[in-house]
Amino acid sequence: MSHRFVIMSLLACYLLAFAIGRTARMVFIVEPQKRLIEENQALNELIQNTPQLKLPNPIMKGGLEPPKTAYTSKNFDTARTATTISRFIVTDVGAESDEKAKECRVPEISNKGIAENEDQEVHEPKGQHLLVDIANVESAFLGSEERLSVAMLELVKRCGLTLLSYHCHGMIPTGVSCAGVLLESHVSFHTWPEEGVITLDLYTCGEGSLLPFVSIAKELFAIPSATADKVPELVWSHKFRGFTDDLESEIAVRTDFFRFPIGVMMDYKEEIYSGETEFQKVDIYDVLRPHFQSLDEYQKSLLGDGSYASQNPELFEPDRIVFLDGILQSRRSGDAAYHESLVHPGMFAHPNPKRVAIVGGGEGATLREVLKHSTVEELVMIEIDKKMVDISKQYLPFWSDCSQLIGSADYCFDDPRVDAYFEDAFKWFIDRFSSEPTIEAKKFDVIIIDALDPQVQVDIVDALYDGGPFLTSLPNSLRDDGILIAQVGEAARLESPGEEHSWHRNRVKFIKTLIDNGFESVRDYEESHAGFYYPWQFVVAFKSFESRKSWFHHEALTSVDIHERILPTKTGELSLRYFDGPTMMSYKFPSKASETVFCLRDSKSEMCSEGRNEDHHDWKSPVSALVMDENKITNKIFPSTIPDSNQLSSRERMISKYFTGKNAYNPLAERDPTLLPDTILKTKPMH
Questions:
Q1: I want to staple 429 with a disulfide (CB 3.0 to 4.6 A). Which of 316, 411, 473, 633 is the partner?
Q2: Where are the alpha helices (DSSP H) in 312-445?
Q3: Catalytic entry in 450, 481, 524, 561
Q4: Which domain covers residue 271, as residue numbers?
């Protein structure tokens, strides 16, 4: 092989490699680089043609000196695409120039600086966190850094916060992100102009409530679009975060109000009223309950288009909830279950309640339920908070609506049977029913206590349930067959400790005081549909064993009593929406959880040693133990009328109804042949 051939071959390979490399460079490096340069030039031209923004400075409130801080910043290389600059706090009198305000200043730490700030608010390692999302907002507003910055500064100012600095990024092609450093913590937001959405985040370690921020944020940021047919929708939540050693402060923020609805992001949550009376903080909210109600169905119910939702709007309306000092008191969805289960079991246990007293119940619903009893001739209500009654009349009209009751007034408080006292119930009872003998005519048949829950850890609650002079006066205020009814808060659960070792200890003291003061029988029962987080417990105390006879009536007799006693309505519909005979059957005996917790406290009780809820010797009890009542059941219940000479027997442990007579079915005889129908006929009734 000649040298020339070798040289030519190597040269050809070199030239081929060079050509391939050159081509690859042009295709894979030069052209992409050229395109990047062209895109960069176009972006620079766009930025140069964009009007330079003049964002407002955050201003120190009240003429105070800005706090001394060390400002440190480290950014990505965004300078070539920046359209705004950061803004720093200035004084409201003689504000420094922007150039000086932008300087990074390292403060000198001295005792003088500390002394100057001694009167400023101390920030503990805890705080409040508020998240707000708003949809259907005007896109032009969401794309304007200037308008958004002005809104943010106004928001901070009206919330009483101190904004040290903030900066914004205008995104390409759309969207704005802004973040501000507060003396108290931070505020930030981001926008999606094309979708009409903005999300805001505010955290502060200050003591001032952030809840006013919600309505202010709605006013400043929920700008409706002039072209869209949808109104802005706001979703928000409020959380307490951090740590504190202050038990009273901890209890105050862990209330029902901040658990729900405040702490939950939900489709619909509207403040109806928020204010304070002389005695308590009142908050009323409308909410659509998650998993039970939807915003779409609620909106359809407002259209009047003939749909099912529009024809039955009451089924889709928001739930109205009432909080007193942060504690859930009542809600529209649980109104009937709570107030009817509070009032009617004890009222129907009394054969003829004429004079009734209510302690508390300022919203008027307890009053409404008592007025449904035709036997009631006089109803005394003692409520310390007159303003709460006025608030309820305006914002909770259904709670005190008696307009459908024949013989009553439109507004329950205007019923001629009602005598309302707006004063301290403790003093009212003690002044009238001390240990001295009381005129019988002034005593009550039934007293209903619809006051604060015993679990609430405040002094006034302890005074209500601690066995003081108020509870001592109650038996003196009742007639011999009188009945006391009280709601005693959240029911015990199976896993609850003994009540004296839990927040239920006031309930134990309350029941013990009733027994010590002469009540011969105390029954407790629970209702699971009252609108609270757990079943709610009630107590009925009978001044004598005789007065509790009707407590164990069969459900049929309770239904008859309801039919005979409850006032009719103008529409002909039943005025009781929840309570009936079968419901009363479920109240006759304590729950398994209630008995279990009781036995943790009193394990030596006969009930605890022999078994709860079931007496295995029941069926061998003598027939003389039966309680006999004259038959009151008419042919409205049964196909043929039961003869008046017959009797209906009922006893605490019985489940079925028994009719006397030779041909009557007697399940007792199946367990004990000595208990024959004839024996029942010959037995003298006990009352």
A1: 473
A2: 335-349, 365-370, 386-395, 425-432
A3: 450
A4: 83-92+124-329
